[in-house]
């Protein structure tokens, strides 16, 4: 029997340093997130980052926490519930990190008699620290605990016309009542090294955009390429002016060079260039979360206004929009009835 496993990133159990610490430990000890040898990762994460970060992150989580819990979890649960209403198949929700684990979700499907699973990483783009780690963990759990289960994975959908249509429609709605003079597409950043590591040809990705116009197998796993592609496709779909749109990368940790331009620097640059009314969209996330609600909607607004900007709007992620639910249901149905997946 077929069934569906939706997987998002996950959140701590509560916005306290006590609960944030084990969550960050699991997250940052993932070798696809902090990709250094284990001993060094131990020193870096447990010896340095976890000494101060849980307190700082807990403070940020407190600012965005809802009565029902973490926005990312609550929104993912609402989305799952709506998808369930559109399909006959069992649909379970798991998280890569935290207590709502992938294993628990697989167990839920197993108990319903599911032995053929469609795995849906809830990320539009491929990155080893997001999409890839979900796939690897889900396959590991399946092989270790549910060896007779079959698993098929939904590919990254950053460029699918039907996804671009839904994303563009949500952006158009957000821009309807906002007289913007610039739209910033802010994607979660990753260290530049991750791009090189994910390049199967080992020489294609130049991380300056010069490679992205040359067709290559590397694009299947190039996060930077895929982000710029999403921006271009939305820009074309909505007919946005070339000089009113730009792309940037947020949420970097100190240390290595991360993908540029950095979103916080862009807030300042755009304001200094005289842009007064800025709309920001965050298409690396399908649901609002700490990185969109705190870093972009709250901190970003302050940064832009301090630099001279006047009006600022963060346009929500797709969350539980009906057209996004319909789209997910249509991908599930194509897989269920024709074994077809978007490519
Ligand atoms: C080396 C560190 C990190 C990499 C690489 C990274 C990639 C990455 N992350 C997301 C999506 C989300 N990240 C979120 C929070 C978050 N991310 C990092 C670090 C890296 N992410 C940290 C330490 C945190 C926790 C909060 C903090 O202390 O700043 C979230 C929000 C989770 C929530 O509960 O709301 C999301 C979502 C992607 C898509 C990605 C690679 C493309
Ligand atoms: Fe992150
Ligand atoms: Fe490229």
UniProtKB/TrEMBL annotation:
One of its GO terms (cellular component) is cytoplasm. It is found in: Cytoplasm. It comes from the Bacteria. Belongs to the ferrochelatase family. This is Ferrochelatase. One of its GO terms (biological process) is heme biosynthetic process. The keyword Ribonucleoprotein does not apply. GO terms for molecular function: ferrochelatase activity; metal ion binding. Fe(2+) binds at residues 188, 291. Pathway: Porphyrin-containing compound metabolism; protoheme biosynthesis; protoheme from protoporphyrin-IX: step 1/1. The keyword Protease does not apply. Keywords: Cytoplasm, Heme biosynthesis, Iron, Lyase, Metal-binding, Porphyrin biosynthesis. Catalyzes the ferrous insertion into protoporphyrin IX. InterPro entries: Ferrochelatase, Ferrochelatase_C, Ferrochelatase_N. Its EC number is 4.98.1.1. It catalyses: Fe-coproporphyrin III + 2 H(+) = coproporphyrin III + Fe(2+); heme b + 2 H(+) = protoporphyrin IX + Fe(2+). It comes from Muriicola soli. The lineage of its organism: Bacteria, Pseudomonadati, Bacteroidota, Flavobacteriia, Flavobacteriales. CDD domains: Ferrochelatase_C, Ferrochelatase_N.
């Amino acid at each position: 029997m077929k069934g569906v496993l939706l997987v998002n990133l996950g959140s701590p159990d509560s916005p306290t340093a006590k609960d944030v610490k084990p969550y960050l430990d699991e997250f940052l000890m993932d070798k696809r997130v902090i990709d250094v040898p284990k001993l060094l990762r131990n020193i870096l994460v447990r010896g340095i980052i976890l000494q101060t970060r849980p307190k700082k992150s807990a403070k940020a989580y407190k600012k965005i926490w809802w009565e029902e819990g973490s926005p990312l979890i609550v929104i993912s649960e609402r989305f799952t519930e709506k998808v369930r209403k559109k399909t006959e198949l069992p649909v379970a929700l798991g998280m890569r990190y935290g207590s709502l684990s992938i294993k628990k979700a697989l167990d839920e499907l197993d108990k319903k008699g599911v032995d053929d699973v469609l795995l849906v990483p809830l990320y539009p783009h491929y990155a080893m620290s997001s999409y890839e780690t979900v796939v690897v963990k889900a396959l590991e759990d399946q092989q270790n605990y549910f060896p007779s289960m079959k698993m098929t994975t939904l590919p990254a959908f950053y460029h699918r016309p039907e996804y671009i249509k839904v994303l563009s429609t949500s952006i158009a709605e957000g821009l309807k009542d906002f007289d913007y003079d610039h739209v910033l597409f802010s994607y979660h950043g990753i260290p530049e090294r991750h791009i090189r590591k994910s390049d199967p040809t080992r020489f294609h990705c130049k991380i300056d955009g010069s490679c992205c116009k040359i067709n290559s197998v590397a694009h299947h796993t190039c996060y930077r390429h895929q982000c710029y592609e999403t921006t271009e496709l939305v820009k074309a779909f909505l007919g946005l002016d070339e000089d009113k749109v730009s792309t940037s990368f947020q949420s970097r940790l100190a240390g290595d060079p991360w993908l540029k331009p950095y979103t916080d620097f862009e807030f300042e640059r755009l304001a200094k260039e005289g842009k007064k009314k800025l709309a920001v969209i965050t298409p690396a996330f399908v649901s609002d979360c700490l990185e969109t609600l705190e870093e972009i909607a709250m901190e970003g607004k302050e940064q832009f206004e301090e630099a001279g900007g006047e009006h600022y709007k963060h346009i929500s992620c797709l969350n539980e929009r009906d057209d996004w639910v319909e789209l997910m249901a249509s991908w599930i149905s194509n897989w269920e009835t024709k074994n077809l997946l978007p490519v």
